[in-house]
Amino acid sequence: MNTVTERETAAAAGAAGGENALEIAGLQAWYGESHILHGVDLTVGRGEVVTLLGRNGAGRTTTLRAIMGLTGRRTGSIRIGGRETIQMPTYRIAHCGVGYCPEERGIFASLSCEENLLLPPHIGAKGAKLAEGMSLDEIYAMFPNLAERRHSQGTRLSGGEQQMLAVARILRTGANLLLLDEISEGLAPVIVQALARMILTLKARGYTVVMVEQNFRFAAPLADRFYVMEHGRIVEHFGTAELEAKMPVLHDLLGV
Ligand SMILES: Nc1ncnc2c1ncn2[C@@H]1O[C@H](COP(=O)(O)OP(=O)(O)OP(=O)(O)O)[C@@H](O)[C@H]1O
Ligand SMILES: [Mg+2]
């Protein structure tokens, strides 16, 4: 599938059979009195990698947090694997098979790499393809550097190792929809390349990925589709085939 129209048709067909991993419609969200999201519409098919782009403060992190039920009030619709979650508390949303990797990574400094990996419970949605979650052995096969560092304390891991660990940790839960916030941020190019290979491996294994990225060059070759946010709204939405044609618009919107 090359065009957004084809994908949208497929997404719409999938929606009828509950095939989309995520369908957001008219999402509004607040932090206290601050109205941050003003009607976000976003659909992600199963197995797709979708990137959410935007300038600082556009509302990308808030969108991921709203999906997880971690903002204040939310209105609109968020369907995960066909189930409406807008009224659910965070733990039930997680049980729909969603894993959230926040920008701050949340590695416990006093625990070893392996203890960090063992922390989360299994939350995979019943009947979901990846409900079992990855075993430690599978994770170590996919992230050999974490295997080497399994007994190292959280604080002693490099930034790149901590980032790998933060992603690996949610794979253990059985989540099949991964929400990743700026995973490439502040990391050396060689680590960013390793993260890109990791995303491609996850995609090949059937995971669905929503990535918030500032690093357009990292995201561009990985994503199937792109959404651009501004002031709490989606202002552009296109597929890989249109990327070239959209570059002038992206340059204006993001300065890339
Ligand atoms: N806890 C909060 N309380 C009130 N306002 C917030 C809170 N967190 C974020 N905001 C505001 O919401 C808006 C969107 O922020 P958000 O973190 O979603 O942006 P972003 O697109 O992820 O950008 P970046 O990560 O580059 O800052 C910003 O104006 C921000 O100041
Ligand atoms: Mg952010």
Structure description:
- The protein has helices at residues 4-16, 60-67, 90-94, 113-118, 136-142, 144-148, 159-171, 189-204, 216-219, 243-254, and strands at 20-31, 34-45, 49-54, 74-80, 83-84, 98-101, 177-181, 208-212, 225-230, 233-239.
- Helix content is 35%, strand content 26%.
- With 256 residues, the chain is α/β, with parallel strands linked by helices.
- It has a 6-stranded mixed beta sheet with strand order 6-7-8-3-9-10, sandwiched between helices.
- Residues 1-17 have low confidence and may be disordered.
- The protein has a single domain (6-254), classed as P-loop containing nucleotide triphosphate hydrolases (Rossmann fold).
- It binds adenosine-5'-triphosphate and magnesium ion (MG).
- Magnesium ion (MG) is lined by residues 60-61, 103.
Bound molecules: adenosine-5'-triphosphate, magnesium ion
The domain count comes to: 1
Radius of gyration: 18 Å
User: Terminal Cα separation, in Å?
Assistant: 26 Å
- The second-level CATH architecture is 3-Layer(aba) Sandwich
